[in-house]
Design brief:
globular; cell membrane; 203 residues; single chain
Length: 203
């Protein structure tokens, strides 16, 4: 992966991490109810789960590429169409709401870790998303394993930092999402639509 492709990937990953999803909502909820330190267990479980999903998507793509490079072109266009559809759904989605005023029963770190991990790996939409998203950046002439390390590592760092920020600011973010969440969803949806339209056209 060259530096220009990595920068585009980094920007796309930042947009993905900021968009509403089960793990972001968990980080927000657990940050509000249990505090940033305990929410770190939830976030770490989710990041580990995402790395596993990225591995499944990447090496599934690799198996197809061994059969024919034509599959990469097919995956790019199908993936682009899926990202546009996902962006439209997100654009139309209602704002995320969360009640942070309730007191919480104390939870163990391992319990929060498992919840974050399961939220990442049990959502089939996550695997579909990465299967659509990653082919836009795969270079069939370079090591797939090295590209996996770069892509998974970049995503893990961005997701960890983003969710930590969300957890630390949970009590301020939640009311804002209830008020301005629709515009936020539209901005994130617009990012996905732009990615879906533009990336399949890259060489």
């Amino acid at each position: 992966m060259n530096s220009s492709t990595w920068l585009i990937y980094l920007l796309a990953v930042i947009g993905l991490s900021l968009s509403p999803g089960p793990n972001g909502l968990l980080a927000l909820t657990h940050g509000a109810l249990h505090g940033q330190r305990m929410a770190l267990y939830t976030i770490s479980g989710g990041v580990l789960g995402f790395i596993g999903v990225v591995a499944l998507a990447m090496f599934g793509i690799g198996a197809l590429l061994k059969a024919s490079l034509m599959w990469l072109v097919v995956l790019k266009w199908l993936g682009g169409a899926y990202l546009v559809w996902l962006g439209i759904q997100l654009w139309r989605a209602p704002p995320v709401g969360i009640n942070v005023g309730k007191s919480a029963t104390p939870r163990s770190g391992s319990s929060l870790f498992r919840q974050g991990l399961l939220a990442a790996v049990s959502n089939p939409k996550v695997l579909l998303f990465f299967s659509a998203f990653l082919p836009q950046f795969v270079d069939p002439e370079r090591s797939l394993f090295l590209q996996f390390l770069i892509m998974a590592g970049t995503f893990a760092v961005v997701e960890l930092l983003t969710e930590l920020l969300i957890a630390s600011m949970a009590n301020r973010i939640a009311p804002w999402l209830q008020k301005s969440g629709r515009r936020f969803n539209q901005a994130c949806g617009g990012i996905f639509i732009a990615i879906g339209l533009a990336l399949p056209l890259r060489g």
